[in-house]
Amino acid sequence: MYEMTLGLEIHCELKTESKIFCGCRNEFGGEPNTHCCPVCSGFPGVMPVLNEKAVEYTVRTGLALNCEISRYSKWDRKNYFYPDLPKAWQTSQYDLPLCKGGFVEYELDGKIKTVRINRIHLEEDAGKLLHEGGVSRIDYNRSGVPLMEIVTEPDLHSEAEAVAFLDGLKSVLKYIGVSDVKMQEGSLRCDVNLSVAKPGQKLGTRTETKNLNSFSAVKRSILFEYDRQCGVLNAGGTITQETRRWDDNKSVGYSMRGKEDAHDYRYFPEPDLMPVVLSGEKIEEIRKAIPRLKKERIAIYTEKLGLPLYDARILTADKDIADLFEGTAAVFKNPKKASNYIMSEIMRKGKREGSEDVEIGVSPAALAEILTLIDSGVISLAASKDVLDAVWNGAESPLAAVERLGLRQNSDSGELESAVKEVIAANASAAEQYKAGNQKVAAFLVGQVMKATKGKSNPKLVGELIEKLLKTN
Ligand SMILES: [Zn+2]
Description:
The chain is of the alpha+beta class and 473 residues long. It has helices at 52-64, 159-175, 215-234, 280-288, 294-303, 309-316, 319-331, 335-350, 364-375, 381-391, 398-405, 413-426, 428-435, 441-452, 459-472; strands at residues 3-13, 68-69, 72-73, 76-79, 89-92, 99-100, 103-108, 111-124, 128-132, 135-139, 146-152, 188-197, 207-212, 242-247, 252-258, 268-269, 276-277. It has three domains: 3-285, no CATH class; 292-405, no CATH class; 413-472, Arc Repressor Mutant, subunit A (Orthogonal Bundle), CATH 1.10.10. The longest helix has 20 residues, at 215-234. The chain is elongated. Bound molecules: zinc ion. Zinc ion binds at residues 19, 22, 24, 36-37, 39-40, 144.
């Protein structure tokens, strides 16, 4: 039985306003080739100007991942020809990256594990090739977008570890605000280096599978490559060091080319850019601007707001959710109720098909208003879902939506009593079971009344009425 060893290279696009060496907008999407200039299109003779924000974001990441920050780092040209790279070299960092060392903690099956970071360097992203109908086109909007590469040590040993680590890393990157980490848009991409060996033996030859853009692709490509390498070795073959491609639709990996070594790229110092020199004060200034991370937030939620650890963990898994919770709890002073509602309704509604991300379409103020409307009995929990639908990504206020949709709940006991009576009459056997002591039937009867009144009744009141009517009969 072979053991697998994995090291990851994570490419993360930084969400700066402009590109790394020119003033073009750094924005996903847009008409092809509309965010371009002579610099990012690689015209001869143009001069790059460094975007300091990109350096700051990379240093911020290094500090959050416990790295040593280089006081002196420089730029190098990585030379290769490919149509998406107009200059025929990529401005990157070779022997003096911005950050070295470091580690990331992540959680798997309730255990805290650690992955060491080898280095983090900054470079420019390439353009994008679009292959359609037998024609290939090039979009240079992405060319020159600041790209941070995080290289781990080979500390991972299963696909589950790889995904849990990536999830933890993604969460940190989002918390510190350096990237929107949207894998489906390519702002976070992952290369997997994988080798296999019998326990106790030295690591085998590794292969690298490039550009994986979902957790599912990472997981499936690892399992595929592990099986493939085991198969080759079991048949008496040897593993070739190579770069591989993953076809996500077919769930199959292919050999792309023999793996290059650094000398194939003829790295040499970039003559058009000054080295990056960072003072101790500058590094401290960046450190102070790091926002509160997950661990600190969990401590505040459990110790100050009295939430169970379970809730605190779920709410902090994504920064947008954590921010929504904090903003809501600042207005609506029942943190547990806010937490329950976010963990059920908001996370259900914000979940996107085929994506790990949750998209939030409601402001903390609007959510606090919805919770207040439920709490004060103006609307039922069931009706609040319609209110949420109405205000999601829109400008209408929750109260306005309640009035427009006629969702004020019926607390008129006379009217409600006749509705309850009708339901009891229509469900005679359930009523008999209730009277015989089967309390579980009560929930069913309440549900029937809620249905008959289109969710506009106060469920607590309905329950009381059912009890009253069936006891006195
Ligand atoms: Zn440009």
